[in-house]
Amino acid sequence: MKKHDVLFLTEDATHDDIIEIINDEAFGPGRFAKAAQRIREQGPHDRALSFVATDNGAVIASVRMTPVLAGSVNGHLLGPLAVRPSHKNLGIGRELVRIAVEGARKKGSEGVILVGDPPYYGPLGFEKVAYNALEFPGPVDPARVLVVPMADDTHARLKGVIGWRG
Ligand SMILES: CC(C)(COP(=O)(O)OP(=O)(O)OC[C@H]1O[C@@H](n2cnc3c(N)ncnc32)[C@H](O)[C@@H]1OP(=O)(O)O)[C@@H](O)C(=O)NCCC(=O)NCCS
Question: How far is the CA of 166 from the centre of ligand 1 (A)?
Answer without folding.
Answer: 31
